[in-house]
Amino acid sequence: MGRSKEKESTGGFSLFSPVELGTKNQITMCGIAGAFWVDPQHEVSEEVLRRMTDSLAHRGPDDSGIYHRFPHEHGPYGTVPGVGLGHRRLSIIDLAGGHQPLANEDETVWTAFNGEIFNFHSLRARLEGAGHTFRTHCDTEVIVHLFEDEGVDAFSHFNGMFAIAVWDQRHRRIVLGRDRLGQKPLYYCVHGDRLLFGSELKALLQVPGLPREIDPGAIDAYLTYQYVPHPRTIFRGIHKLPPGCYLTFDGKNLEIASYWNPDFSREMAISLDDAKAELIRLFTDSVKLRLQADVPLGAFLSGGIDSSLVVATMKQLTDQPVKTFSIGFPQKEYDETSYARQVAEHLGTEHHEFQVTPDALEMLPKLIHHYDEPFADSSAIPTWYVSQMTREHVTVALSGDGGDELFAGYDRYKAVRLAAAVDMFGPVGRFGSKLGMKLLPAGGPQKSRLRRARRFAEAIAMSPGRRYLDWISIFNETRRGELYDDGFVERLPDTDPYAFLYSAWKRSGKRDALTAASLADLTTYLPCDLNTKVDIASMAHALECRQPFLDYRLAEFAIRLPSKWKWRMGRGKFLLKHAFGDKLPEVIWKRRKMGFGVPLNTWFRGQLKELLHDTLTSETTKSRGYFRQDTIETLLREHDTNQFDHSARLWALLVLELWHREWVDP
After folding, report:
1. Is 130 in a helix, a strand, or coil?
2. CA 263/CA 518 separation, integer angstroms
3. pLDDT in tens, 89-139
4. Is the alpha carbon torsion for 564, 570, 573, 578 positive or negative?
């Protein structure tokens, strides 16, 4: 099918050969949408398909295309269902080509594809050796030809970030696949005998008659995590395809399977020097693969370890000055530009620094529209600004996302380690912690050491995974119980939001708690929060963001590393320092992690106070029947009087209500 000689085995070839920078390729970032149906009465018309596709125009302003066909009874492979594929394109490489949807020679395989296949050079060479004929130089064509040979097994050969839809005419089915670590989003809904899908939820909402029924369990999970975990969405019946999975649907049967399932419970035995050598090899090759572009390319530079290492490695691999971008705010505690400036000067980058005074009132409607289900990570605001300003100079930006999860970089892992030490003393240790809690004062600033110590002591009697959720929750179980209206409690499903984290936590088996926490973050917080935040903010400005730490080969290596090579002397990223210590100023290795935030606490006592109070105490909000009004008023009063910093909780509640008004209310 679509090649000049018979099918040959794909075994025994390297998928990861280094690529030469500057070669002509076609790589695109974009948005996809589509539908599949059997009954002609359930057709998704070409007009609706265009609306679905055009709702994603911000993701791909350079080009658009659709493929639409009606069901018919007499095809070469039997009765052929109806199918529609839509594509919006942001051109990155070989700007004149790469139009999608794209088919193989005999049009039995069609694809619409969002993302990049970084190893497509080596895949193409192998496919050409097997007899396939290529009409373009794009990574998209590798997908259709490899799918001809391998079917759904093709996904396991791709090294990249992607959401892929394949119309497989020979088997009369639609196939969807998502990258291993959830860098690219993919939503879907089975509605009778038809399947709808899109890169963003708003694409599906263009289909007339699609129900918008709120899932109470999704609200419960959202207020726990600050996002709606996969496979749920805020709407009942609409789902996210989990990372590392593919879906097949033939009009009757829907099947979802994982093509990437590394064993988190197995730890490798490796010396420090061997680990260092392997890390350098994998990380350098990952950055090199992500430097392919025929458009201006740069990097986000926060002045933290991860983004700085990405920039240092970029400098090593190119003769041209690296363009770097950082954003600063008037509030010193949220401004990292001095660190970014030191790194830029040390590495000799072409540095661009933006000072911004965030306008929350102007920003909120944009965030609510683009994050088209409730999303309460307020760092979406600075991510939005840095993406907007970076896009004025480049089309592609590399970032350091993933380093904290892979190499134990979060400060909260200190509490995980300490709690594990207390657990070693059994009931005696837990009794001592409870006694300490009674002696600690209940008042004081939320982020004070006393407040943190009390919160630690309160959770110590829980299981390791449960107490970790208690620490990271926006509203923990107790606070959600105080918040919910009795009628809303009755609407909640008989499920516990903890199940999402626990399913990830237990994958580490008998390994230490630090490993369990960091790898749970890798498969929960990273795809659902960080990758969602970056994808939506960057694509809203037609900026492609590439994340070298999320090359799956590097991830598999880090997953199996013993925690002793990640955590030393109360600090994470030990192996990164051992491998790359000479590439960055010493102050960067020793600096305290700041995070990427905005001053919500002062906004809610200043420019956002009126909007916050009016929204959360309005009759519209009350009529939803979700929350106890006395609890809402207590949160507002305690925050207003500086008795307690409830800013993250109030932000989550404000976003939820404004989202309803944008996407649900008439």
Report:
1. coil
2. 15
3. 766 554 445 678 999 988 999 999 999 999 999 999 999 999 898 888 888
4. negative
Among the ranges given (65-69, 173-177, 398-402, 527-531), the one the predictor scored with the smallest mean pLDDT: 65-69
- pLDDT one-digit tens code per residue, 4-33: 333 333 232 222 222 333 334 444 558 999
Q: Is 453 exposed, middle or buried (0-12, 13-18, 19+ CB in 10 A)?
A: middle
Binding positions for L-glutamine are 139
Alpha-carbon distance of 546 to 638, in angstroms, equals: 41
Q: Residue ranges per domain, the chain?
A: 31-258
- Taking all residues of the chain, what is their mean pLDDT, rounded to a whole number? 88
Structure tokens at 658: 């404004």
pLDDT, mean of residues 512-528: 98
Largest pairwise CA distance in the chain: 79
Helix, coil or strand: residue 30:
strand
Which among 268, 296, 514, 542 has a CA at the least distance from the CA of 409?
Answer: 514
Neighbour tally for 278: CB within 10 Å? 18
Asked about 528 being catalytic, the answer comes back as no
Give counts: helices (H), strands (E), the chain.
29, 19
pLDDT single digits (tens) 558-589: 999 999 999 998 999 999 999 999 999 999 99
Which tokens in the block code for residue 90?
Answer: 């942001």
Handedness of CA 488, 491, 494, 499 (dihedral sign): negative
CB 302 within 8 A of CB 596: yes
Confidence of residue 270 (pLDDT cuts 50, 70, 90): very high
Nearest to 292 by CA among 318, 267, 268: 318
Of 30, 245, 528, 545, the active-site residue reads 30
> Residue 3's pLDDT is what?
40
Residue 642, pLDDT > 50, answer yes
Cis amide bond preceding 527, omega within 30 = no
Q: How many other C-beta atoms lie within 10 A of the C-beta of residue 49?
A: 24
Binding-site residues for ATP, in ranges, read 327, 399-400
Binding-site entries: 139, 327, 399-400
Cα end-to-end distance, the chain, whole Å: 50
**194: buried, middle or exposed (CB in 10 Å: 19+, 13-18, 0-12)?**
buried
Integer CA distances (angstroms), 458 to 439, 441, 492, 540, in order: 12, 12, 26, 41
Tokens 């935040």 correspond to what residue? Answer: 533
Give phi and psi for 274, each to the nearest 5. -70, -40
Tell me the pLDDT tens digit for each residue of 446-471: 555 555 555 656 767 789 999 999 99
Q: What is the pLDDT of residue 328?
A: 86
Which residue has tokens 């007339």?
208
Distance (Å, whole) CA 400 – CA 299: 9
Outline where 77-236 has alpha helix (H).
120-129, 139-150, 201-204, 216-225
Where does 31-258 sit in CATH, by number? 3.60.20.10
Residue 37 pLDDT exceeds 70: yes
Task: Specify the higher pLDDT residue, 125 or 598.
Answer: 125
* Average pLDDT, integer, range 163-185: 96
- Other beta carbons within 10 angstroms of residue 266's beta carbon come to 11
128 contacts 15 by C-beta, under 8 angstroms: no
Integer CA distances (angstroms), 486 to 274, 489, 640, in order: 58, 5, 27
